[in-house]
Amino acid sequence: MSQLAFRRFAVAAAAGCLSSVVVSCASRPTASTLASTNKFADATLRQIATAQDERATAALLPFLERPEAGYRREAALAFASVQDKAATAALSARLADADILVRRAAAYALGQTTDSTAENALRQRISIEADATTRRYVLEALGKCTSRAGLSTLTKLPAALATDTAAVAGQAWGLYRAGLRGLTSEAAVARVVQLLGKSNPYSARLAAANALARTRGLNLTPYAAAIGTAAQTDTRYEVRSAAAASLSKAAQAATVPATLVTLIRRDPDYRVRLSALRAVSAAQYAPLKEAAWEALTDAHEQVALTAAEFFLAHAKGEPGAGLLEKANKLTPWRVRATLLAAALRQGGEQQAAIRTAVQQRYLAAADPYEKGYLLKALGEDPAAYDFVSQATFLAGQPVVIGTYGIEALVSMRSHPAFPAELQPAFALLLQRAIGTGDVALMGTAAEALRNPKLDMRRLFANTVFLRQARDKLLLPRDLEAWQSLQQTIDFMENIPAVPLPVAKAATHPIDWGVVQGIPAGQRAIVHTGKGDITFRLLVEEAPGSVVSFVQLVRQGFYNGKNFHRVVPNFVAQGGCPRGDGWGSSDYNLRSEFADLHYGAGAVGLASAGKDTESCQWFITHAPTPHLDGRYTIFAQVVSGMDVVSRLEIGDRIERIELVR
Fold first, then answer.
1. Which strands, in side-by-side order, build the sheet including 523-528?
2. CB within 8 A of 90, min separation 6: which ones?
């Protein structure tokens, strides 16, 4: 997923320590957590971490044979980031290491390689591994590496392990990881549903609920009763939320609408109410409508926004004027703008009046993010084409308005009612956007040009203007726009994909002098307009990422920036110098995939793909295990999660303060 794609990630995605033990924290405590120095005072550990950063497999392999168990473990963990299948055999051998922690690290690293040749070694280890926690690691790693033929090993544990809670948790996470890869079966689904049962450990229930929510193509109608019970009665919101989300795959069951209504109206945790709203299908609109109307005024703004998104996605037969009236009574601007979009989508005799009302609100709004959302709403009405195009290219305005504007225009072009006579003008508009030099306009317009549904290729005789625009970009700063333009050139010319030009470690090596000055317990306070959030920086797990963050903080880089992206029950993201998600620093970092997991309050780095991290970071609202091992975790929220849950697009990062 690119940094751009991460910024646009659909709400469907929004839905530990060790993932299968404690999911509320991102990091396993180490002996040096409270020490005044970190582990990189050890020159050998710096050497291993440097080889990891440089993706130097040949330099790392000898450390797997060192007599010191600590160095073997660190080398194995390094391969979780390097992800070179050339190390599979050496890592497989370490599954039999005399040291438990080395065996765990080797299993984790093998899972990160997703190498099917590791399947046999992992499968064989299950029955002979003496340590229960290590066995759990092996089972989860097997889910990342297993073939379809080997799925049965995960589905049915050996009889001797049937009551082993660690093995049950490992099985659940293994089935979850396999499901993310599209590997499942009827027997696997039945087992996952069993693992939702309250007699199983929390970790297994969490993995099972997420497996049901995120494995594609499942028909969960036969299991609606069991899933509904978990969604309503589990003691942990994380399980109830994921179980509620999975009810979207049981829409044919007669009991589901009533279950969702109960959750929307009564669950005490906003994340569960939100997941229930998202689980509603178009066919359930009528029985869920009243509960969704009530949710528009939910005490938690994220729930209200999700209710507005429900009407935008599913409303049918509603008078647009009625939605406009309801929208005008709402205070939160993002909720209001989304309901205005629903009003425009419904249309009717009052379409022109609704459009005028939205345009007037746009002209009166002062907040650039609200203006952007109002342009997004106007994207539902092709008759607003001239208004939105003028707003998009207006000189001297905040860049975020243009970013929302070009996205609205592309959305408008996809509308069935978009006039055929405007299509040539739209093509010229995209060419104009690409010529502006603005990375957001360029990247979004290029993406539209290669959208086969828009059939734009026939309107352009050559790609000279695309190449000229691409060649003016500065790498790695403008990597996302470069990538979008290059993909469009490849599409227009029907040529093989050109690889992403990822910067090498030598262009921005880890500054070990700075790293050694960062205490293992270093904290950072993010002062926002909504209150303070305190991070614990994970310098021992992600030294390159932490040192970059610390250096930017010391420069005041983040002062005055905004949270430009908030996806309810998923992430709040900030740190973009442009304020729209398209900004970057002048350098890239390499991904650092330590043995950490995305629980609530994990702080990760956005990226445009592996080894392209920069200055943008995000905080998770709840467990999001599908991000594990794909996005660097460099910090963990230790206080202020109530603030995180209330952050909204446009909220300001006043400053970040480093404290001991």
1. 563-567, 571-574, 617-620, 602-605, 633-639, 531-537, 523-528, 653-659
2. 61, 64
| pLDDT attached to residue 33 | 42
Is residue 531 within 8 A of residue 640, CB to CB? The reply is yes
Instruction: Tell me what pLDDT residue 348 has.
Output: 85
Q: For residue 54, how far is the Cα from the chain centroid?
A: 26
CB count in 10 Å sphere of residue 330:
18
Q: Are 532 and 637 in contact (CB under 8 A)?
A: no
**Is 418 exposed, middle or buried (CB count within 10 Å of its CB: 0-12, 13-18, 19+)?**
middle
**What does the alpha-carbon distance between residue 652 and residue 404 come to, in Å, rounded to a whole number?**
19
pLDDT in tens, 465-497: 999 999 999 999 999 999 999 999 999 999 999
Q: End-to-end CA distance of the chain, in Å?
A: 35
How large is the average pLDDT for residues 33-46?
A: 83
The reply to whether the predicted model has a pTM over 0.90 is: yes
Which residue segments constitute the domains of the chain, with CATH numbers given?
47-256 (1.25.10.10), 508-659 (2.40.100.10)
What number of helices (H) and strands (E) belong to the chain? 31, 8
How far is 158 from 169, CA to CA, in rounded Å? 14
The CB-side HSE value for 520 (13 A sphere, CA atoms) comes to 17
Could you read off the pLDDT of 142-157 as tens digits, one per residue?
A: 999 999 999 999 999 9
CA distances (Å), origin 397, targets 156, 366, 403? 60, 11, 11
- 218-256 in b/e form (b: 16+ CB < 10 A) is bebeebbebbbebbbebebbbbbbbbbbbbbbbbebeeb
Using an 8 Å Cβ cutoff, are 602 and 26 in contact?
yes
Task: Give the pLDDT confidence of 284-323 residue by residue, as tens digits.
Answer: 999 999 999 999 999 999 999 999 999 999 999 999 999 9
378-392 per-residue burial string, b: 16 or more CB within 10 A, e: under 16: bbbbbbbbebbbebb
Question: Cβ distance 403 to 372 under 8 Å?
Answer: yes
DSSP output for 28-74:
---TTTTSSS-GGGSHHHHHHHHHHHTT-HHHHGGGGG-SSHHHHHH
